[in-house]
């Protein structure tokens, strides 16, 4: 396997979770449903901090799985979001399309097919960078940086993503614990100096909003 395609092991991991648990939080490899809702709420603050509730915005749920985020958006009666989803795996995307035929869904690898994806006001990447599986930290950092450069080009206003914190008692080898110093250095040099780091919601991770 070439170095730049080692991220396929992450893709396979999530595909295996989906095969085992199906359309559920465990199928997306989230152990606790309450924490999933907490993450959704934090992710959507990317938009709430900048937009009024009457201002319609387009949102891409990057790594959407079976579009559980869209279920949450509807359950919370958030009406100003025009939702679209993207996932690299066909199985979850097919379920998402069956649940929400009125929404647009894309099944593609943005690193290989960037030109086939339109632009969106906002992009949410929930869980895309929390696990590195068998990649080394250096390989995962390279993957993270390539992905962020590609995705940031597709957003008109901002992007949100989460990673595991390094402010923990111990780090799991299969998770991606990213130094905020490294993150800030990369963001300011390559993306934007306009960002927010959220470490206030009680999980061993942090969420970043980067605005244009």
The percent range for helix content is 25-40%
CATH architecture annotation: 3-Layer(aba) Sandwich
What is the CATH third-level topology name?
Rossmann fold
| Computed structural class | alpha/beta
Could you give a short account of the major beta sheet?
7 strands, mixed
Specify the CATH homologous superfamily: Vaccinia Virus protein VP39
Q: How many helical stretches?
A: 6
Number of domains: 1
Rounded to the nearest angstrom, the distance between the terminal CA atoms is 35 Å
Number of strands: 7
Q: Report the C-alpha radius of gyration, rounded.
A: 16 Å
Strand content: 15-25%
**What would you call the quaternary organization?**
single chain
Shape designation:
globular
State the low-pLDDT regions, or none: none
Strands side by side in the biggest sheet: 3-2-1-4-5-7-6
Q: H/E order of the elements?
A: HHEHEHEEHEHEE
Description:
The radius of gyration is 16 Å and the shape is globular. It contains six helices and seven strands. The model has no long low-confidence stretch (mean pLDDT 96). The protein has one domain (3-211): Rossmann fold, CATH 3.40.50.150. The chain has a seven-stranded mixed beta sheet, with helices on one face. The longest helix is centred in the first third of the chain and has 16 residues, at 33-48. The chain is 35% helix and 21% strand. The protein has helices at residues 8-21, 33-48, 68-75, 90-99, 137-152, 180-190; strands at 57-62, 81-87, 104-107, 120-125, 155-164, 195-198, 205-211. The termini are far apart. The protein has 212 residues and is an alpha/beta fold.
